[in-house]
TrEMBL record:
InterPro entries: A-crystallin/Hsp20_dom (IPR002068), ACD_IbpA/B (IPR037913), HSP20-like_chaperone (IPR008978). The lineage of its organism: Bacteria, Pseudomonadati, Pseudomonadota, Betaproteobacteria, Burkholderiales. This is Molecular chaperone IbpA. Keywords: Stress response. Residues 27-138 form the SHSP domain. Pfam families: HSP20 (PF00011). It comes from the Bacteria. It comes from Herminiimonas fonticola. Belongs to the small heat shock protein (HSP20) family. The keyword Iron does not apply.
Length: 147
């Protein structure tokens, strides 16, 4: 794996330290268990689908803190040990973190047939959306720019 040195960015750019830290963090190897997809549903809607076969709703926790989405699975320990002849369905604990862009938030989550689907949306506040200003116009003639 190739590594990059972002220290020059820290020395010469102000306010981009989070971006450089994001690149540093993304280079670390992370477990691929459980497998997941990140899907662009449409322009401002996303879906994370995670294969969590064998996990109950009560064993999965979804938390957002700031710009981080954290999904944690803690498998309840069985009271009676089982004697498997073959064990192909993993049941180990997991934790995945995802960095969310500005104005992206969780719309909902559901667990169906062993797949955890988390719906996300980007909703830019009205005050931050582009506006078209009419020349020689007055306040009520300010129009929202439609993309």
């Amino acid at each position: 794996m190739r590594t990059y040195d972002f220290s020059p960015l820290y020395r010469s750019a102000i306010g981009f330290d989070r971006l450089a830290q994001f690149f540093d963090d993304s280079q670390r190897t992370e477990s691929s268990y459980p497998p997941y997809n990140i899907e662009l549903v449409n322009e401002d809607k996303y879906r994370i689908t995670m294969a969590v076969a064998g996990f109950d709703r009560s064993e999965i926790e979804i938390v957002t803190e700031g710009d981080t989405l954290k999904i944690t699975g803690r498998k309840a320990r069985e009271e009676t040990p089982r004697n498997f002849l073959h064990r192909g369905i993993a049941s180990r604990d997991f934790e995945h973190s995802f960095q969310l862009a500005e104005h992206v938030h969780i719309v909902g989550a559901k667990l169906d047939n062993g797949l955890l689907n988390i719906e996300l949306a980007r909703e830019i506040p009205e005050a931050l959306k582009p506006r078209k200003i009419l020349i020689d116009g007055v306040g009520e003639n300010v129009q929202k720019l439609v993309a």
